[in-house]
Design goal:
alpha+beta; 4 strands; four-stranded mixed beta sheet; Zincin-like; 3 helices
Length: about 90
């Protein structure tokens, strides 16, 4: 799992932990994302992408119900995975 992600120009730390009772959560005041360690590695990255999407939606003050945010993050994650875009974008830097 990555230790840090940059979202809208701000570095957020990522911590995998068994000390949360949900799949993932973000703490804007601490610039920290927590991911549940009980999930598989693939599920952890899926949840990380959900939390990133949630941070973006909140920072841009876009009004969206959580169920819609979940659907949006799932579709975007699938597009990235299906087209190996994460690997491609990393290599192009």
């Amino acid at each position: 799992m990555v230790k840090k992600v940059r979202i809208l120009g701000i570095d957020w730390s990522v911590e995998v932990t068994d000390e949360i009772d949900c799949f993932g959560e973000c703490h804007p005041g601490k610039l920290k994302i927590f991911i549940n360690s009980k999930l598989s590695e693939a599920a952890q990255y899926y949840i990380l992408f959900h939390e990133i999407t949630e941070i973006i939606i909140n920072e841009l003050e876009i009004e969206m119900e959580h169920k819609d945010l979940t659907a949006l993050s799932a579709v975007l994650y699938a597009v990235i995975q299906d087209n190996a875009l994460a690997t491609t974008l990393t290599k192009e830097k």
